[in-house]
Amino acid sequence: MDRFCKQIKTVLFTVVFAIIPIVPTKAKVIAEPPMEPAYYGPNALLVPDMIDGTADKCIKVEAGYDYIAGYAGDVTHNINLYTDIPLYTDRVHLRLFVPPVTEFWRHSNNSLFHYNLSEDSRKGNVGGDIYVATDIHVLKEEYHRINVVATAMIKSASGDDSGHLRYFDVPAYHFYGTISKTLHFDNRIISGLNAAAMIGFSCWQIDKHRQNDAVLYGLQLSAHGDHYNLSVNARGIHGRLHTGDDPAVIKTRLDLKFSNWSPYVAYQHGLNDYPFNFYSVGLLYSIPLIK
């Protein structure tokens, strides 16, 4: 009898230890946020800035600085470079910009908690992505005709600090059109008013098998005189997933003109899934290229 009981115990222990490995357990998994602008730094996915649609005949080189105040208490400092080059004709332009060449950030206790970051993400600096755009002026404005510009833009994946939620480690693509019309006045204060609208398509990879497809949109009104240009625009990206992919901004910029030099100041207010305010200053230099 004792021998039989020992055999029964042996069988029961064997069955129990065979079942234990296949019993599901609750392992602690740290979920990564969606690859959307609402959960990353201010430079992870920028809403493309607007152009006025006119065909410029100058090379433009711009250097700027942004002070970026996050709504959760984080602060970012940007150093930016921008170039706009007409390619043999004013109908085709190549734009290259690095926003930023480098960024410096610092988190508060509140923003570390908000983004679910550890203490080693409190501050740092890293290089940014590179944006390359080609603008093709399909129609040039005349008395009875508007400006029409087609733009293709790509964002690199060179900003690789995804561990601190600063950048997406994937490229992004923007394809859009801009239409505009300028009204001219015989006035020393306001010599022209330009109205512009853009509409297009944006996409970026969000995981190994999916991408987010979005509508890109914007409206702009600008006034210029002999020594200034003042513009106000509202623009955004409306993603299809509704998981933090609906960034929108309102921006005001004032350029002062002194010969070929144009210092500027700008303010940009973030809306929806873009919780950042930009305070910007910079200097633009124009080089006449095409006569």
Description:
With 291 residues, the chain is mainly beta. Helix content is 8%, strand content 53%. It has two helices and 13 strands, in the order αβββαββββββββββ. A twelve-stranded antiparallel β-barrel has the order 1-2-3-5-6-7-8-9-10-11-12-13. A hairpin with a 3-residue loop joins strand 12 and strand 13. The longest helix has 18 residues. The protein starts with a helix and ends with a strand. The relative contact order is 0.18.
Portion in strands: over 45%
What's the rounded overall pLDDT mean? 87
H/E series = HEEEHEEEEEEEEEE
Distance separating the two termini: 110 Å
Strand order of the largest sheet: 1-2-3-5-6-7-8-9-10-11-12-13
Assign the structural class, choosing from mainly alpha, mainly beta, alpha/beta, alpha+beta, or little secondary structure: mainly beta
Write down the Rg.
26 Å
Query: How many helices in DSSP terms?
Result: 2
What best-fitting shape do the alpha-carbon axes yield? globular
Please bin the fraction of helical residues.
under 10%
Low-confidence stretches: 1-30
Biggest β-sheet strands, sense, barrel? 12 strands, antiparallel, barrel
Would you report the number of β strands? 13
